[in-house]
């Protein structure tokens, strides 16, 4: 059997949300933890995200009068994916989302609270996205790293997992790590947690598993190379839903900043180059990326107004766009059309039709139910947007403890995975993504993996 100069009890590969949460949970379970991270600074996809996480049945929801629980969340997941996911994993994620988040609040002083700007929408039948005012994903990463430092968890930056060694019983015995100078070290480990994110930056893998994303820009972390997934596959791990991903239809062009969904939910529209709408903007947060990519020039304009802007201005992404003076502004629909190069008649008719539908609250010609959302009125705003691939949702299949499964359905005894490295519950393609399922998978599976790995290593 392969031997090592030294062995660590819990090794976590990747220091985004999943890896950091897993490390904190394993430490709390009594194990010494070492985290490795390929980049020279903490961030990952988590650092690029809006930092919003789903959790069902939290104290914060109750304080806002929102009735929710794991069963309702589970039903929402299964409805969104039309039954095409692993129901056990859906139950595990739905049922553990609130305990994981509240553990971060109670034990690690995270200021999560229900984000009331994010209405129940896009398949979440309840308001269940949690964040904290004015924050984004990078704040979350920094706080997680501060907490790891407080707990004495070593994080080795510029250290990349490049291989995994097993014994004859498929037990992980150690790993090969590459440092910034290219030197390879072999290190033993009692348990290994794979938290290296997804594979959105790996063109060979996206071409193989989701060729339709070739038409999209990539706006995810450049370190998402799928290394955990192909190293796991090499060991005989089962993969699931490799065609699953979150696209996003509202990446501003040219700023490369996400327009936050509340801009649409409050009443914003998406029009194409001519000024015509082409989708129900509230139907499918991820899948509508393809509707926009197929429009002339592959671009659209998010048309909203000053009142919506004022209501959403505290959301960091919109605040930055305003600071950059990215939104085009105009007093009339005709003037806005001239400014964005749309056909004035078309844009005026589009806005007028939306206002008519908004007055009745009924479904409009595209099927959008307006409810209490209010279509744009003067003075107008518009942001040019394009469709992008944000992150992948398929990967290593895991069980209820986040243990990686072999192809025969049995679990590796001491190998765990979560976040973008694991198969989530977003179905087989782009249409099954519920808002904030990416970080929900990272935080919840990270928590489960860390607790199980920590307990195993501590025995
Ligand atoms: C613009 C944008 C906005 C988003 N907004 C949201 C949101 O608001 N809510 C939501 O739920 N989801 C959101 N997502 C998705 C979410 O960010 C991801 O699903 C989530 O961050 C995945 O967490 P993770 O810990 O698995 O991966 P990451 O945060 O990417 O962390 C993985 C880490 O592993 C490192 N790594 C990679 N390979 C190796 C290796 N071989 N060895 C060592 N380290 C390695 C990487 O450098 C990285 O730091 C967004 C994504 C993007 C791109």
Outline the structure in words.
The chain has 459 residues and is an alpha/beta fold. Helix content is 34%, strand content 21%. It is built from 15 helices and 19 strands. It has helices at residues 17-28, 44-48, 59-63, 70-80, 87-108, 137-150, 203-209, 227-235, 262-265, 288-293, 306-312, 316-323, 333-340, 344-360, 437-458; strands spanning 7-13, 33-36, 53-54, 113-114, 129-131, 154-156, 160-166, 172-178, 184-194, 217-218, 239-240, 245-252, 269-271, 299-305, 328-330, 380-392, 395-396, 403-405, 411-417. The strands form 4 sheets. Strands 1, 2, 6, 7, 8, 9, 18 and 19 form an 8-stranded mixed sheet that branches. Strands 10, 12, 13, 14, 15 and 16 form a 6-stranded mixed sheet that branches. A hairpin with a 5-residue loop joins strand 8 (172-178) and strand 9. Helix 1 (17-28) packs parallel to helix 15, helix 4 crosses helix 5 and helix 13 packs across helix 14. The longest helix is centred in the N-terminal third of the chain and has 22 residues, at 87-108. The relative contact order is 0.20. The mean pLDDT is 96. Flavin-adenine dinucleotide binds at residues 13-19, 36-39, 43-46, 48-53, 160-161, 195-197, 219-221, 223-225, 227, 258, 390-391, 419-420, 436-440, 442.
């Amino acid at each position: 059997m392969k031997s090592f100069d030294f062995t660590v009890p819990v090794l976590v590969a990747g220091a985004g949300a999943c890896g950091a949460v897993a490390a904190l949970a394993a430490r709390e379970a009594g194990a010494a933890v070492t985290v490795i991270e390929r980049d020279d600074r903490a961030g990952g996809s988590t650092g690029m995200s809006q930092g919003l996480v789903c959790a069902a049945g939290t104290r914060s929801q109750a304080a806002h009068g929102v009735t929710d629980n794991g069963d309702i969340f589970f039903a929402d997941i299964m409805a969104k994916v039309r039954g095409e996911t692993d129901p056990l994993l859906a139950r595990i994620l739905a049922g553990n989302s609130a305990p994981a988040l509240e553990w971060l609040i109670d034990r690690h002083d995270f200021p999560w609270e229900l984000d009331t700007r994010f209405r129940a929408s896009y398949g979440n039948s309840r308001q269940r996205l949690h964040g904290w005012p004015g924050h984004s994903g990078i704040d979350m990463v920094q706080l997680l790293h501060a907490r790891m430092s407080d707990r004495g968890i070593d994080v080795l930056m510029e250290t990349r997992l490049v291989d995994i060694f097993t014994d004859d019983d498929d037990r992980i015995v150690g790993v090969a790590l590459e440092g910034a100078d290219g030197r390879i070290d072999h290190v033993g480990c009692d348990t290994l947690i794979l938290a290296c994110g997804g594979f959105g930056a790996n063109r060979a893998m996206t071409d193989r598993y989701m060729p339709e994303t070739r038409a999209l820009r990539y706006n995810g972390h450049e370190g998402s190379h799928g290394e955990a997934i192909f190293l796991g596959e090499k060991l005989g791990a089962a993969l699931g839903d490799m065609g699953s991903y979150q696209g996003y239809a509202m990446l501003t062009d040219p700023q490369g900043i996400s327009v936050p969904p509340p801009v649409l939910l409050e009443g914003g529209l998406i029009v194409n180059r001519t000024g015509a709408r082409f989708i129900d903007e509230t139907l499918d947060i991820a899948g509508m990326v393809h509707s926009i990519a197929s429009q002339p020039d592959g671009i659209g304009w998010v048309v909203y107004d000053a009142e919506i802007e004022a209501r959403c201005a505290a959301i960091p992404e919109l605040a930055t766009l305003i600071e950059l003076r990215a939104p085009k502004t105009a007093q009339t629909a005709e003037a806005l059309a001239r400014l964005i190069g749309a056909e004035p008649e078309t844009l005026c008719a589009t806005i007028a039709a939306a206002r008519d539908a908004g007055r009745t609250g009924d479904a409009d010609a595209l099927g959008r139910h307006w409810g209490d959302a209010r279509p744009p009125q003067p003075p107008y705003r518009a942001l040019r947007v394009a469709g992008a691939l944000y992150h992948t949702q398929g990967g290593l299949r895991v069980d209820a403890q986040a243990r990686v499964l072999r192809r025969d359905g049995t679990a590796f005894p001491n190998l765990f995975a979560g976040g973008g490295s694991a198969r989530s519950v977003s179905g087989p393609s782009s249409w099954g993504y519920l808002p904030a399922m990416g970080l929900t998978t990272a935080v919840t599976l990270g928590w489960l993996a860390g607790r199980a790995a920590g307990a195993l290593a501590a025995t």
